[in-house]
Amino acid sequence: MSQIPAVDPDRPFFLQNLLTSIAMSKPGRWFAINVAARVDPVLMKLTKGRISTFFSAPVVLLTTTGRRSGQPRTVPVLYYTDGADVIVIASSFGRAKHPAWYHNLRANGVAALTARGRSGPYVATEVADPDERLRLYRRGEHLYRGWRDYEAMAGAAGRQISVFRLAAATT
User: Fold this and answer.
1) Considering only CA atoms, which of 112, 77, 72, 75 is closest in space to residue 91?
2) Structure confidence at residue 1 as a pLDDT band (50, 70, 90)
3) The sheet that has 118-126: what strands, in order across it?
4) How far out from the chain centre does Cα 63 lie?
5) What's 13's DSSP letter?
6) Domain positions in the chain
7) What is the pLDDT of residues 28-74, one digit of tens each?
8) pLDDT: is 16 or 7 the higher one?
9) 146, 102 in Cβ contact below 8 A?
10) 131, exposed or middle or buried, with CB in 10 Å at 0-12, 13-18, 19+?
11) CATH number of 16-168
12) Whole-prediction pTM value?
């Protein structure tokens, strides 16, 4: 098993402002929901996590077990690291419902992650402490400022966006 590459949300990635502006636009959000979410799992599997439609953004393939189907489900998500742990935010683009992978992680708690040619098994924990959740969420906003808008949109629908901490599984 190899460690997922570290991502510091306080250090901008190549073309971060441009990609964030595009992703936060109506066409960009539509593209992310309707195209990237379908294309990236295939593209990233073929390239071992090295290439995605958001080519320079820190994207990880998150593979969970479907809570109803029992089948593997793979989705691309933005991530950053906090120490050795991988942090993912279940924003679902600010929609009223949690993403399917949120329910899968809550039901099973294990996942496989793949990014930039590295992959491995991880154990996921939903961050329950409100202060820690807020700290991690605010850190994530340095990576992608669109999460601010998503938080407001989800909140208006009565949903709090969850944050997950994934630790490398020990074998």
Assistant:
1) 77
2) very low
3) 72-78, 59-65, 110-115, 118-126, 162-168, 85-90, 80-82
4) 11
5) P
6) 16-168
7) 888 887 888 788 878 878 877 677 777 667 889 999 999 999 999 99
8) 7
9) no
10) exposed
11) 2.30.110.10
12) 0.85
Distance of CA 160 to the CA centre of its chain: 16
99-132 confidence digits (pLDDT tens): 999 999 999 999 999 988 888 999 999 999 999 9
Could you give the 3-state DSSP secondary structure of residue 95? coil
Give the CA dihedral 133, 134, 138, 144, nearest 10 degrees.
50
Smallest Cα–Cα separation from 50: which of 93, 112, 4, 12?
4
H/E element holding 74? strand 72-78
Q: How far apart are CA 44 and CA 62, in angstroms?
A: 11
DSSP 8-state class, residue 39: H
Residue type, 123: V
